[in-house]
Amino acid sequence: MKMIVGLGNPGKQYEQTRHNIGFEVIDELSRRFNIPLNQAKFKGIYGIGFYNGVKVLLLKPLTYMNLSGESIGAVLDYYQIEIEDIVVIYDDLDLPVGKIRLRQKGSSGGHNGIKSTVAHLGTQEFNRIRIGIDRPQPGMSVPDYVLGRFRQEEYVPLQEAVKKSTDACEAWLEKPFLQVMNEYNR
Predict the structure, then answer these.
(1) Is 111 annotated as catalytic?
(2) At 89, which CATH number?
(3) Which of 19, 47, 61, 144 has its CA 20 to 30 A from that of 112?
(4) What is the pLDDT averaged over residues 71-97?
(5) Which domain holds residue 30?
């Protein structure tokens, strides 16, 4: 089984904020793969189904960003999913809006959701898709920025990034992540 996780915060007030871009990709995958997110357990909401013959689990941790690893670790343990069979999707301040970057390992880069994931998985070596949200303007705090909504002019590149991330996840179900990474990081 392959597990695709999108990071974000639960609740209406966080919908369509920069920090919830991972949730948006999971919602798009749910539509595309016809896998409803209809199970609530392991401090998250998830769905399991098949896409092109591959068993897939889509997960949105509901622990709030800083504790995402609790949900991810619990699902991984319960379903005995191998680390190489997961991909985690999240926002990245160090990439411009709309840019995506796939990696097989790395530090948290200061991202609290990834810090929690690393702590609960016991490794930095897991597949990830980082989606650029850019940095805040001088004088704006990072928390206020990541919990804020995208500006109007950012919507088109944002939707392209969601589509590219969804496409990359779909490709990963058929090819090794390294191959997908090489294709999408060009």
Answers:
(1) no
(2) 3.40.50.1470
(3) 47
(4) 97
(5) 2-184
